[in-house]
């Protein structure tokens, strides 16, 4: 068994941890800037969101088939020759890809005394929904904990395999 494949669970869970950490950071930033009407760039703050993609489905199928084939081998000499899956397998890093996306969501309020009011007295605020942002934070926190549980379970599996 390749060492890289042995630790692929850590890589996948690590990418999940990084994605959820980024999600919490973005939700916190959106809440903190919910009333920011002027940024250093000049306009109001643009709410951000995290776009997650799970990668190529063929990679998952490949990893699943590879693990099934390995479970079917029962003789030591079967492990000596790489299977066709091992030859082209590469790393099994199946975690999500995260990308920050700025959104053009604004709300307008009438406040002629505000320093950023336009000639009609309207002020442009970022359209941040506090309930939605808090929900994202709680969900990301739960998913972060789930990824930590995966890492802990894998550590226990490795530890017990050395005891055998």
Write up this protein.
The chain has 164 residues and is an alpha+beta fold. It has helices at 3-6, 8-32, 57-72, 76-80, 84-89, 130-163; strands spanning 48-53, 97-102, 106-110, 122-126. A two-stranded antiparallel sheet has the order 1-2. Helix 2 (8-32) packs antiparallel against helix 6. The model is unreliable at 80-89 (pLDDT under 50).
Whole-number radius of gyration?
Answer: 24 Å
| Strand segment count | 4
- Spans of 5+ residues with little confidence (pLDDT < 50)? 80-89
How much of the sequence lies in strands comes to 5-15%
Mean pLDDT: 83
- Along the chain, the helix and strand elements come as HHEHHHEEEH
Q: Please work out how many helical segments DSSP would assign.
A: 6
Large-scale geometry? elongated
How many angstroms does the end-to-end distance come to? 17 Å
Within the largest sheet, what's the order of strands?
Answer: 1-2
Oligomer: single chain
Helix content: 40-55%
Protein structure class: alpha+beta
What does the main sheet amount to? Answer: 2 strands, antiparallel
In a few lines, what is going on in this structure?
By secondary structure, this protein is α+β, with helices and mostly antiparallel strands. The protein contains six helices and four strands. The strands form two sheets. The protein has a two-stranded antiparallel ribbon. The chain has a two-stranded antiparallel sheet with strand order 3-4.
């Amino acid at each position: 068994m390749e060492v890289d494949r042995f630790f692929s669970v850590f890589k996948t869970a690590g990418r999940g941890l990084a994605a959820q950490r980024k999600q919490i950071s973005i939700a916190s930033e959106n809440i903190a800037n919910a009333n920011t009407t002027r940024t250093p760039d000049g306009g109001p703050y643009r709410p951000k969101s995290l776009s997650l993609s799970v990668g190529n489905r063929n990679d998952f199928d490949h990893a699943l088939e590879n693990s099934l084939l390995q479970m079917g081998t029962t003789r030591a000499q079967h492990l000596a020759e790489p299977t066709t899956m091992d030859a082209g397998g590469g790393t099994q890093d199946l975690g999500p890809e995260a990308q920050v996306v700025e959104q053009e969501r604004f709300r307008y309020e009438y406040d002629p005394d505000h320093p950023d009011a336009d000639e009609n007295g309207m002020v442009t605020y970022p359209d941040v929904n506090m309930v939605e942002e808090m929900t994202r934070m709680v969900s990301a926190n739960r998913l972060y904990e789930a990824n930590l549980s995966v890492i802990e379970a894998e550590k226990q599996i490795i530890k017990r395999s050395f005891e055998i």
